Amino acid sequence: MPVSDTVARDDTDAEGDRLPINELFASLQGEGKLAGVPSTFVRTSGCNLRCWFCDSFHTSWEPTHAWMSLDEIVAEVESLSPEHVVVTGGEPLVHDETDALLSALADDYHLTVETNGTLDTDAPVDLASVSPKLASSTPTPENAPADVDPGVWTERHENARVDLDALASLVEHAAEFQLKFVVTGRDDLDEIESLVADVRGVADREVRDSDVLLMPEGQTREQLARTRTEVADLAASFGYRYTPRLHVDLWNDAPET
User: Can you tell me which residues bind Mg(2+) (predicted)?
Assistant: First the structure.
């Protein structure tokens, strides 16, 4: 469902039992352990971080959305065929109503929540797809998207990008989890190794190397072509999993993919 009546808002808090929805569509999951699985994507607008390479610019740097009630969202999901639902963003867990949506869908669907790992949830989650943000994600005047001044977000993002308590809670709570890192190059691996060790130290659940996924940074086929081989080699060298970005390979940077 293309959200044709989207409006820009300064706030990111949902009103009442509504959520700000940027997109709602059926496609293939492009990333992670379930790559290739037909899925319905519910993309909320609004995020508490600002990665310079964000691939959903209109949920973070310039949020646009239509407000939909939970009943409207559930009805739209039911009109589509996939048995897997991915609640994503932006950062869907900034909205309290996301928990209610997950609870409403839990009996009938396999639920993935894609989150940056700075917030947790008590709602039913089959797969917590947690993407902790590395130092290389922090926006600066040099790397920020075109025509965007990162302003206060440089410091705000850097200070908020890792929350070990939230990471441990997500790892422990969900039926399954994956730690999915966006990798810009070899320099990211020292921080990934350190952060994985920290999560293992605080989480009351085993974090296997196979639960750690390395994903190349890149929003277009051309960008991925420059990074995927290096990241695949890093995954093989460090014993982690490599995850493709199938939606980019198949449809480049088209919306609703």
Answer: 56
Quote the pTM value: 0.92
43 is in an annotated binding site: yes
Question: Would the annotation count 30 as a binding residue?
Answer: yes
133 marked among binding-site residues: yes
Match 């390979």 to its residue by tokens: 249
CA distance 206 to 241: 16
Amino acid at 121: T
- Does 28 appear as a known binding residue? yes
Question: What is the Cα gyration radius of the chain?
Answer: 17
- Separation of alpha carbons 224 and 213, rounded Å: 16
45 is in an annotated binding site: no
- Domain spans of the chain, in order of start: 3-210
Per-residue pLDDT of the chain (257 residues), as tens digits, is 434 333 333 344 445 689 999 999 999 999 999 999 999 999 999 999 999 999 899 999 999 999 999 999 999 999 999 999 999 999 999 999 999 999 999 999 999 999 999 999 999 999 999 999 999 999 999 999 888 899 999 999 999 999 999 999 999 999 999 999 999 999 999 999 999 999 999 999 999 999 999 999 998 999 999 999 999 999 999 999 999 999 888 988 887 77
150 marked among binding-site residues: no
- Is 205 annotated to bind a ligand? Reply is no
Any known ligand binding at 245? no
The secondary element (H helix, E strand) that includes residue 41 is: strand 38-44
Thinking of the domain 3-210, which architecture would CATH place it in? Alpha-Beta Barrel (3.20)
Residue 156 labelled as part of a binding site: no
103: annotated binding-site residue?
no
At residue 26, the 3 state secondary structure works out as strand
